[in-house]
Amino acid sequence: MTNVYSFDGILVFGLLFICTCAYLKKVPRLNNWLLSEKKGVWGVFYKAAIIGTRLHIAVAVSCLAMAFYIVFLK
């Protein structure tokens, strides 16, 4: 299991957060409700969604590398 307070846990949480926000950007109702603000606390969701959509190849490779690390090396 991955601990949230370790560096591995923070990386896993960040990657999952970015992937989730990028997925929610594709859902029209959630896009208008959750990702409409571009500043403030709610802007974090918007910025994570933008990172996930623009850098989708790098995020996917990072997710695969992290999965390999957690399953086989940890």
Question: Shape from CA axes?
Answer: elongated
Termini distance? Answer: 9 Å
How many structurally independent domains? 1
Please outline the major beta sheet.
Answer: none
Amount of helix: over 70%
> How large a portion of the residues is in β-strands, by DSSP E?
under 5%
Average pLDDT taken over every residue: 89
| Strand element count | 0
SSE class? mainly alpha
CA gyration radius, whole angstroms: 14 Å
- The topology string of helices and strands comes to HHHH
Count of individual helical segments: 4
Membrane topology: Single-pass type I membrane protein
Keywords: Golgi apparatus, Membrane, Signal, Transmembrane, Transmembrane helix
Family: Belongs to the KISH family.
Protein name: Protein kish
What distinguishing features does this structure have?
single chain, 74 residues, mainly alpha, 4 helices, transmembrane helix, Ksh1
Quick recap of the structure?
The protein has 74 residues and is mainly alpha-helical.
Please describe the topology of this protein:
Blueprint: H1 7-25, H2 28-34, H3 43-54, H4 56-73
Helix pairs in contact: 1-3, 1-4
Structure, described:
It is found in: Golgi apparatus membrane. One of its GO terms (cellular component) is Golgi membrane. It comes from Seriola lalandi dorsalis. The chain crosses the membrane at residues 6-24, 44-72. With 74 residues, the chain is an all-alpha fold. It has one domain (7-73). It has four helices and no strands. Helix 1 (7-25) packs across helix 3 (43-54) and helix 1 packs antiparallel against helix 4. The N and C termini lie close together (9 Å). The relative contact order is 0.16. The model has no long low-confidence stretch (mean pLDDT 89).
